[in-house]
Write a structure and sequence with these properties.
Layout (H helix, E strand, L loop, with lengths): L2 H10 L1 H5 L5 H13 L1 H20 L6 H14 L2
Helix pairs in contact: 1-3, 3-4
Length: about 80
């Protein structure tokens, strides 16, 4: 397999890799590729930082009236 194919395979699975949604053997192959390919390693690093940034800053606290409405609905369903 040439470098271009290896890069395509690695980057096409970038989100599955970062979300731990792929099998161990495939993870190992991607890790080995990232050790050899600085371009892909940078791409993976960027995406990983972007995911972390969004997760850290996307937390929204529900207004108290919404929380209470959900609690009431849960209680009513439990009856």
């Amino acid at each position: 397999m040439n470098r271009k194919d290896a890069c395509f395979r690695a980057t096409s699975r970038i989100y599955s890799y970062l979300d731990n949604e792929i099998r161990t053997l495939r993870r190992i192959r991607i890790r080995l590729h990232l050790r050899q390919c600085l371009k892909c390693k940078r791409a993976f690093g960027f995406e990983q930082r972007l995911i972390s940034f969004v997760r850290e800053r996307s937390y929204v606290e529900a207004p108290p009236e919404v929380v209470e409405k959900i609690r009431r609905a849960i209680r009513e369903r439990g009856r």
